[in-house]
C-alpha cells in the first residue's frame, strides 16, 4: 500500500469507483472498493472513490484523502477531459488519461472474497461518532468477546420489500440453538441480527448471551427508508463485529465476512 501511494500521482490510467444509493450495504461498498484497489495496485492504476454523499460515507472514511474525488471537480483534478463507463472490466484495456468509471456490477462476475488480502483497516477507518457509540452499546462493558451474526434478510430492514421482492436468508434454527448451547458460557458471546425481535428471542432463551439495543436498518437506502439513527446503529454493529476475537455466521451474508477481513479475524460458519 505504501509503495502504491508513493507512485499514485504518476499513474496514467485511472479508475473512479462510483457507489450509489441502492447499490448495496456497507459490506458491498467496502468489498468492491477493496477488490478494485487490489486490481489497481497490481496494475499500476490510480483509483478514486467518487463522493456521492450517501449515508455510509458519513461514518466510514478512507485513510487517504487524496483517493477521494468529487463530481464537481472531476475534470479539474487532472489533465483529463473524458469519462468512460465500465460495466465489464478488462483491466488490460483501461484507457489512459481518462476517468474510467466503475460500479459494483462491474465486478460481480470476477469478485471473490479470497482476493481481499489487504486488511481493510489499512484502507478504511470509522469516525469517532461510531467509536463512541460502540462504547455506549457494548465496549464500556466488555472488550473481549466472540460474535454470532445472523442475517434474516431485507424483509426485516426495508418495509417496501414486504410488498415487493423478498430477500429472506436461510438458516437452521435447531443447529443455531445447538451451537449456542455448546459454547463456553464463561466467554462473552454477543449475538447480532438484523431483526430486533429475533435478538430478543435468543436473549430470552439464553440469558448468558449479550445483545445490543441497536436499531438496525439498511445502510444503502435514503433516509426515507432508513433513519439517521438506524444508519449510525447499523454501522456501530459492523464496527463491533470488527472488534470481535472470532465471528460465527448463522446465515449467508457479506456483513460478517467483510467485518472479519478488517483485522483478519477468524470467521466460522454455523452449518446451515
What's the CATH class label of the largest domain?
Alpha Beta
Low-pLDDT ranges? none
How are strands sequenced across the largest beta sheet? 4-2-1-6-5
Strand residue percentage: 15-25%
Biggest sheet statistics: 5 strands, parallel
CATH fold type of the largest domain: Rossmann fold
Measured distance between first and last alpha carbons: 37 Å
What is the total number of structural domains? Answer: 2
Question: SSE order in H/E notation?
Answer: HEHEHEEEEEHEHEHEHEHE
Please state the overall shape, judged from the principal axes of the Cα atoms.
Answer: elongated
Helix content: 25-40%
| Average pLDDT metric | 90
Give Rg in angstroms: 20 Å
Q: Could you give a quick summary of the protein structure above?
A:
The chain has 272 residues and is of the alpha/beta class.
Structure, described:
The radius of gyration is 20 Å and the shape is elongated. The model has no long low-confidence stretch (mean pLDDT 90). The protein has 272 residues and is of the alpha/beta class. The protein folds into two domains: 2-125; 127-269, Rossmann fold, CATH 3.40.50. It has helices at residues 2-7, 26-43, 55-59, 128-139, 173-181, 196-205, 228-242, 254-262; strands spanning 14-17, 46-51, 60-62, 68-70, 83-86, 99-102, 124-126, 146-150, 189-193, 209-210, 246-249, 267-269. Helix 2 crosses helix 8, helix 4 packs across helix 7 and helix 7 (228-242) crosses helix 8 (254-262). Helices cover 31% and strands 17% of the residues.
Write the layout of secondary structure elements.
Layout lengths: L1 H6 L6 E4 L8 H18 L2 E6 L3 H5 E3 L5 E3 L12 E4 L12 E4 L21 E3 L1 H12 L6 E5 L22 H9 L7 E5 L2 H10 L3 E2 L17 H15 L3 E4 L4 H9 L4 E3 L3
Parallel strand pairs: 1-2, 1-6, 2-4, 5-6, 8-9, 8-11, 9-10, 11-12
Antiparallel strand pairs: 3-7
Helix pairs in contact: 2-8, 4-7, 7-8
